[in-house]
Amino acid sequence: xxxxxxxxxxxxxxxxxxxxxxxxxxxxxxxxxxxxxxxxxxxxxxxxxxxxxxxxxxxxxxxxxxxxxxxxxxxxxxxxxxxxxxxxxxxxxxxxxxxxxxxxxxxxxxxxxxxxxxxxxxxxxxxxxxxxxxxxxxxxxxxxxxxxxxxxxxxxxxxxxxxxxxxxxxxxxxxxxxxxxxxxxxxxxxxxxxxxxxxxxxxxxxxxxxxxxxxxxxxxxxxxxxxxxxxxxxxxxxxxxxxxxxxxxxxxxxxxxxxxxxxxxxxxxxxxxxxxxxxxxxxxxxxxxxxxxxxxxxxxxxxxxxxxxxxxxxxxxxxxxxxxxxxxxxxxxxxxxxxxxxxxxxxxxxxxxxxxxxxxxxxxxxxxxxxxxxxxxxxxxxxxxxxxxxxxxxxxxxxxxxxxxxxxxxxxxxxxxxxxxxxxxxxxxxxxxxxxxxxxxxxxxxxxxxxxxxxxxxxxxxxxxxxxxxxxxxxxxxxxxxxxxxxxxxxxxxxxxxxxxxxxxxxxxxxxxxxxxxxxxxxxxxxxxxxxxxxxxxxxxxxxxxxxxxxxxxxxxxxxxxxxxxxxxxxxxxxxxxxxxxxxxxxxxxxxxxxxxxxxxxxxxxxx
Length: 608
What we know:
Layout: E1 19-23, E2 26-27, E3 32-33, E4 44-45, E5 52-58, E6 72-78, E7 87-93, E8 96-105, E9 109-118, H1 120-127, E10 134-147, E11 150-165, E12 178-196, E13 201-220, E14 226-231, E15 234-247, E16 253-271, E17 275-276, E18 285-286, E19 289-311, E20 314-324, E21 332-343, E22 348-359, H2 363-367, E23 378-392, E24 395-412, E25 436-453, E26 459-473, E27 479-481, E28 488-497, E29 502-511, E30 515-516, H3 521-527, E31 540-541, E32 545-558, E33 561-570, E34 578-584, E35 589-594, E36 599-607
Parallel strand pairs: 1-6
Antiparallel strand pairs: 1-2, 3-4, 5-6, 7-8, 7-36, 8-9, 9-10, 10-11, 11-12, 12-13, 13-14, 13-15, 14-16, 15-16, 16-19, 17-18, 19-20, 20-21, 21-22, 22-23, 23-24, 24-25, 25-26, 26-27, 26-28, 28-29, 29-32, 30-31, 32-33, 33-36, 34-35
């Protein structure tokens, strides 16, 4: 993750905007509350984990069926609802309350629905809290067996959120002179029809619709509370796709698919005074904008993939996909991909994969500036190989090495050290709307070690270590480490089930401090705002990050219902992990902002 405050994932040095999320065959642009336009993560997830049946995570070299992402695929499968009696669960935690209900649809289907609302805003007055996030979300799934070989399923999820930062000159811990009102909403729905062809394979027709809205306003105290930024944009993508899997016996397995994505982007963005140029030690504002326009894009695609086993131990998967990204200029691309897996023995497996991957930059950056509309799709070439060992039924050890090479990354024309490869975990698009050109390059490389102990009796856990380097080149031609360059990362997660009632678990993370660009203190003092020292772009690192969390769960069984309680302490030893260094416009000095400190949380669940 990029920080304690957000759930964005950095996968092998790539921006969080490069990650694809699919839930029950429906592409989800963003699963999070408070997600910025063009981002794929945020502070709080909308996904109810009680719905999850399984999840697979592909960190690179993924096959031809996955499109328009450069780094990873998270594929989540949801369980079905209880086809028997009506059942449910109520949970009450530190930040909110939720309810799940589920039941059958006759003898041929099931349904389940969940809703959740935060209540910190109801307690804010009692505890003197300010800028409290308010959010609520829902999730639903229905499944119906039309016939023995035909199944329908429908999913829907969405949420709404709001947070307001009021300007208070006496509140010196809030460094900005801005008053910000930020809200948004999103809803994603999809229906799928799967038709089984016996042993020959199956086909799946999917139709989905994703709609997102953004409502943000910023007022500047230094300009007599004039509105300096507004965003009322609406993004919609409607997708129709068909995928087929055909088993051809000794000739292997064929997988093919076609899709059409129809995108509508209603941009309403205003920067009437421009934005302060944090990369220029001068007292001026740039990039004045007043956008009120609607864009429509049609994005057809298709792929074909063949998996063959020439000998019993060897599996080869070769694929090719075609994408038309629908933007101006040359937007059509072909993407070859290849994967190999060889079983040396029943306990040793080696594998390798490679391919070409394309992705458009977030459309808000492409469409908001006329000169950006001819940006080329970003390209990444993946090369990876690894070995997996299974010394016991419940043990897995793997080593994997990779190289990922980027080209045509959008970089700033005005600020020649800036590349969008260093963006993706921002809270707003303000300050990122400037002319871009497709001249950026980059490379990430590393090696990952992973040890997993599955739960078979009482213990379970996993240990991972990665060594990774990420460098990018912007318009000035200088190769710099990226802001997501974290050479060393260690993660240890584990637990112990004492019996059916008690479970104890823990998590420890250590990571090299992330690079950042220091502030030009003299210029920041002169203009009383953050001004970066562009001559030292990404040359300074934050202190190393480490944190320990512990948790206890207790489950009690009663006739017809269960009681589950949990208590967790995050950052047990209160490590002060640095989040960022900013200029405090109220105290006229540099200010360190830390991540989450010692933080106890708990809750209770009632299952019935």
